[in-house]
Write a structure and sequence with these properties.
The chain is α/β, with parallel strands linked by helices. The protein contains 7 helices and 10 strands. The chain binds adenosine-5'-diphosphate and magnesium ion. Magnesium ion binds next to helix 1.
């Protein structure tokens, strides 16, 4: 994925607040880029633009060779469903569905074969260590397990890009570390271009690269390195 010269502003009283200021970032397939920076520096805005959920004033978002700016909103929604996996802080699972069904629903919305979808759902739940929890509903799972279902669901349609916003902030340190290990492994195995917003310095060692944001700009790697 390539983000090139992204500028995004929000209405702010009489004026506009610049949330992203000419941000350019390349995220290669099969590598995990950590995004750090203080609260309010624009990290979530960057993911929202990368996800094509928000259209920037300037700049381009290229996903798997497709410049998303040239697409209609409807085609962007299709691209989002087919090519982009999104994992936010709160899993947002549907209470009435089992873990496997949460995943199968994604494939169903993309018009995929139910049998293939079921096999893939079970394979992914196995990959995230939940083979024996596939038929549980969210309330029968721990917080860490729910976040694993969330990650597996984001991978259901084999996305080129995986966007993850503070996935471990609701978890204790040990479970957070396990989720991070999982993201690193899946990024390699599934060859996703992964952007991970995190507060946890321990995650940075596992990332292929870290970029730092401040006041809507990319200010380079942390520690001046
Ligand atoms: P971070 O994720 O790094 O905490 P955000 O991207 O959420 O930062 O926010 C960047 C800036 O944009 C902040 O000043 C925030 O208050 C502002 N902002 C974020 N979302 C909105 C919105 N929907 N409307 C107006 N301002 C927003
Ligand atoms: Mg944020």
């Amino acid at each position: 994925m390539v983000l090139d010269g992204i500028t995004l502003t929000y209405p702010d009283g009489d004026g506009r607040l610049t949330a992203l200021d000419a941000v350019s970032l390349e995220a290669p397939a099969g590598s995990l880029t950590a995004v750090v920076g203080p609260s309010g520096s624009g990290k979530s805005s960057l993911l929202a633009v990368a996800a094509t959920l928000v259209t920037p004033e300037r700049g381009s978002v290229v996903v798997g060779g497709t410049d998303t700016g040239g697409l209609s909103r409807a085609d962007q929604a299709v691209l989002r469903r087919e090519r982009i996996g999104i994992v936010f802080q709160q899993p947002n699972l549907l209470p009435s569905l089992t873990a496997a069904e949460q995943l199968q629903l994604m494939a169903h919305m993309s018009g995929r074969q139910p049998r293939t979808a079921r096999d893939r759902a079970l394979e992914l739940l196995d990959a995230v260590g939940l083979a024996d929890r596939a038929h549980r509903r969210p309330h029968q799972l721990s917080g860490g397990q729910r976040q694993r279902v969330n990650i597996a669901r984001a991978l259901m349609n084999e996305p080129a890009v995986l966007l993850v916003d503070e996935p471990t902030s609701a978890l204790d340190h040990e479970r957070g570390a396990a989720v991070l290990d999982l993201l690193v492994t899946l990024t390699r195995e599934r060859s996703t271009a992964t952007l991970l917003v995190t507060h946890d310095r321990a995650h940075l060692e596992r990332a292929d690269r870290t970029v730092t944001m401040a006041d809507g700009r990319l200010v380079g790697p942390p520690y001046g390195g």
